[in-house]
């Protein structure tokens, strides 16, 4: 069969009917171990930390969606990033965006640095600054685009070139874009990583993560670390994630269309002093986003929108007044969420030198009817 389209792979890759019963849905193999026919003679599975049939189906599906040779699933996005970081050794250095996901910053700044892994943050939209940071050896360049919470757009091809010239492995946290909108491996990256908790799962009912890549040797090393470190998802979460992936394309189209409408509406509201949405022509990363983020040839800019109001008091008031937009951390679910990065998600960046505007509000636009979403924001902003 020809290579499947994204929508088809989401439903079929790794998900042939169960050979024992014909069940068309991959079963939840809720088992820790497997009876062996004889010593060292088994049916491909020995112990569920090492491998489990539900998780294997998930990993095959994730690889198909990424267009990668390999994918590995983890218990959370942070478990995926930690396992990736375990490829580094004491004395090596990682380069991070200055507005990297707060948990990633915390891991490198407050946990791994104590083990001798060094880090540096840089504004990765500034390629000259990246080049300067690459003058000293780096082992890993970890990019993230769109970034959180101001949705900056990084030029992946340019960063992969700079990183590779410095001898670094280039990884991209693609959580905000998903493989439906952006394929970092096609732009020169070596590894893509996800918090599958967000759009990949899509229903705010699981925590998981993944890594995807093409290089066989690195994949062997990561597979070894996946088992050695042991931060793997259980069969039920693997199954839920497989179920979420089936509708990823449909959901992303719905998120993108609503976010575009919400952003256009916000841009004209008198209480909004600044809009951050890569789909808006005024956004500094709009051109790169148009080149880098697309589905079936059509540019799409994701489901996240941030905006600024006069000050912190006003921002907190708006966050507390919406009814459909639930006040909460996380993103990427079918239900809309609102939050105040300064006081919530980005509190862990305190001390990094990265400042979040006090009047900044972040929206994860869900797939409710757009008129209801705009009505909710209108009441909260009035
Ligand atoms: C949530 C998130 C993570 C961490 O993932 P968990 O599943 O919460 O461990 C990493 N990167 C980004 C961009 C995220 O949004």
Structure write-up:
Helix 1 (6-12) packs antiparallel against helix 2 (53-66). A hairpin with a 2-residue loop joins strand 9 and strand 10 (298-299). It contains 13 helices and 14 strands. The chain has a seven-stranded mixed sheet with strand order 1-7-6-5-4-2-3, with helices on both faces. The radius of gyration is 21 Å and the shape is globular. The chain has helices at residues 6-12, 53-66, 77-85, 102-111, 127-133, 156-165, 178-181, 216-229, 235-245, 248-267, 286-292, 312-321, 370-381; strands at 70-74, 93-97, 118-122, 140-144, 169-173, 191-195, 209-213, 274-276, 294-295, 298-299, 304-308, 326-327, 337-339, 360-364. It folds into two domains: 6-245, Aspartate Aminotransferase, domain 2 (3-Layer(aba) Sandwich), CATH 3.40.640; 249-381, Aspartate Aminotransferase, domain 1 (Alpha-Beta Complex). The longest helix has 20 residues, at 248-267. 50% of the residues are buried. It is α/β, with parallel strands linked by helices and 382 residues long. The structure holds pyridoxal-5'-phosphate. Pyridoxal-5'-phosphate is lined by residues 76-78, 101, 103-104, 144, 148, 173, 175, 195, 197-198, 207, 209.
Task: Output the keywords.
382 residues, alpha/beta, single chain, five-stranded mixed beta sheet, 2 domains, 35% helix, Aspartate Aminotransferase, domain 2, Aspartate Aminotransferase, domain 1, binds pyridoxal-5'-phosphate, seven-stranded mixed beta sheet, 15% strand, globular
Tell me about the biggest sheet? 7 strands, mixed
**Gross CATH architecture of the largest domain:** 3-Layer(aba) Sandwich
Tell me the name of the CATH homologous superfamily of the largest domain: Type I PLP-dependent aspartate aminotransferase-like (Major domain)
Low-confidence stretches: none
Strand order, sheet with most strands: 1-7-6-5-4-2-3
By DSSP, the count of extended strands is 14
Helix content: 25-40%
% residues in beta strands? 5-15%
Question: What's the Cα radius of gyration?
Answer: 21 Å
Can you tell me the CATH topology of the largest domain?
A: Aspartate Aminotransferase, domain 2
Question: Overall 3D geometry?
Answer: globular
The span between the termini is 56 Å
The first-level CATH class of the largest domain is given as Alpha Beta
Count of the separate structural domains: 2
Bound molecules: pyridoxal-5'-phosphate
